[in-house]
Amino acid sequence: MAGHADAVAALHGAARIEAAARGRSRWYAVYLWVLGAWQLAFVPAVVLWHGPAGTGTSCAMNAALVSGLSVYAARQPVVPRGFARRHYTVIGTWAALYVLTIMLSVTVGRDSVPFAAVAAPVCALPFAVAAVGVMGERRRRT
Fold it and tell me: 3-state DSSP call for residue 5?
């Protein structure tokens, strides 16, 4: 019976560690929500604010945010399961939408506030969808 009790104790210990790791993996959803929210300001700034001042300001602000989020991500003790595949898919989808937004803003939507108002949430969508997915996975596993 001692072997059985040891096995049960080991399983309880593993479950406790797994629960702690899941609780600490919430950071990726926060990361995604911040990037998604940032798109609502960043995309209209890029689409509507032309010239060196607009480009310099929006690029500097974007670089600061991405740098801060990168430091935040690097300091996290737990990486969610499937992180690399999900992250590259999210960033790739966002990049495609962002490039399409820039191309359309230069060709057909130049200085168009309605275009910027539609493009911003479209560019935020990959981050929001992924954040909801991450939060849903956490709920299903607990």
Answer: helix
* Closest to 128 (Cα-Cα) out of 78, 96, 90: 90
Judge contact between 80 and 25, C-beta under 8 A: yes
Reported as a single tens digit per residue, the pLDDT across 61-74 is 999 999 999 999 88
11: which residues sit within 8 A by CB, 6+ positions away? none
Note the Cα 35 to chain centre separation in Å: 5
HSE-up of residue 70 (Cα within 13 Å, Cβ side): 6
Element (H, E) at 47: helix 27-48
Those residues whose C-beta lies under 8 Å from the C-beta of residue 76, and which sit 6 or more positions away, are 24, 27, 28
Question: How does 4-27 read in b/e, with b if 16+ C-beta sit within 10 Å?
Answer: eeeeeeeeeeeeeeeeeebeebeb
Q: Look-up: residue for tokens 């001692």?
A: 2
Length of the chain: 142
Looking at per-residue pLDDT, the higher value among 55 and 17 belongs to 55
Task: Using CA atoms of 87, 129, 29, 99 in order, give the dihedral in degrees to the nearest 10.
Answer: 50
